[in-house]
Amino acid sequence: MQNTSRQDGRIGGGIALVYRDVYNIKNIEERHLRTFQSTKWKLTLKNTHLNILGVYRPPPSKSHVTTINQFTDEFLENLQEDIINSDNLIILGDFNIHISDTNDADAQSFVDCTNAIGLQQHVDTYTHKQGHLLDHIYTLANTEPTVRACIALSFMSDHRLIAASISLRRQDIERRSVTSKCYKNFDLTEFQNDLEFNYSDEDTLEDLVHEYKLKAEKCLDKHAPKVTKRVTKRKMELWYNERITEQKRLVRRRERVWLKYVEEHQWKAFTIERNRLNRMIFANKTEKLCDKVIECVWAQVPC
């Protein structure tokens, strides 16, 4: 189990994730904000992963004087980055918002905002002993994961347990063999010494070229032997392009130089290119997501 307690030290609230040990769980980020707290985990099992965002919004009190509209603004502002940077995202937790109350204007405003950004809420019955629907499960519409069923079970406290069955498509991975030369321990001086070539005046130019080629190939195989390894070919994301590939190569080169010499200016050069790569990825993801939102909006406009 992994858990995040409330910062105010009060009993109750907080976020916990209980999971089977067959899953690999990584705590990505914890947020303690004015109107709510959240924890983001990444669950991995073989070739499949799921990003889980656990949310807890404390109910209004003397020590926690916030409104639903304040929470809506802060929640959606922080959610933008999660939607852009996280695929296979599921959002769940105790929101303490009575979304089943159609007479609550603030609650219905929250529902309208989540619908507008493509979030689909799957719990359809009351989850609190007073008959309110306070515990929510959200996924992005028309994307993975798919919630097949969602039911409310018995009360463990003043809240009911919510059981959801989700479907997550396994990522198709193609593995292939790649053969290349290994120049890691290549010594140019020894290579030149072994490449010495004796010839006679009776040899023709074609014979000399052929013999030299064979000699060079043999020496190269000795000093830079062929290495075969298995690599994974993954599906190309829509936001990925050749500019990002070139930038990633540049970042790796800067990183290797820094690790080799461990100097301050090499570290700065590495961080500059790394940050540039992160900005490029974020910009591309944002552009593709905006295009998708516009496409969905136009699809709902009546002809």
Strands, count = 12
Helices and strands, in order, run as: EEEEEHEHEEEEEHHEHH
**In terms of per-residue confidence, which ranges show pLDDT below 50 for 5 or more consecutive residues?**
none
Instruction: Tell me the distance between the termini.
Output: 51 Å
CATH topology (level 3) name of the largest domain: Deoxyribonuclease I, Chain A
Percent of residues in helices comes to: 25-40%
Q: What is the H level of CATH, i.e. the homologous superfamily of the largest domain? A: Endonuclease/exonuclease/phosphatase
Structural class: alpha+beta
Strand content: 25-35%
What is the CATH architecture assignment of the largest domain?
A: 4-Layer Sandwich
What is the number of helical segments per DSSP (H or I, 4+ residues)? 6
- When the domains are counted, the total is 3
Report the principal-axis shape.
Answer: elongated
Main pleated sheet:
6 strands, mixed
User: How is the largest sheet built, in terms of strand order?
Assistant: 3-4-5-6-8-7
Give me the oligomer status.
single chain
State the name of the first-level CATH class of the largest domain: Alpha Beta
Mean pLDDT value: 85
Tell me the radius of gyration: 29 Å
Plain-language structure description:
The structure is a single chain. The chain is built from six helices and twelve strands. The protein is of the alpha+beta class. The chain folds into three domains: 166 residues, Deoxyribonuclease I, Chain A (4-Layer Sandwich); 60 residues, no CATH class; 66 residues. Helix 1 packs parallel to helix 2 and helix 5 packs antiparallel against helix 6. It is elongated. The two termini are 51 Å apart. 13% of the residues are buried.
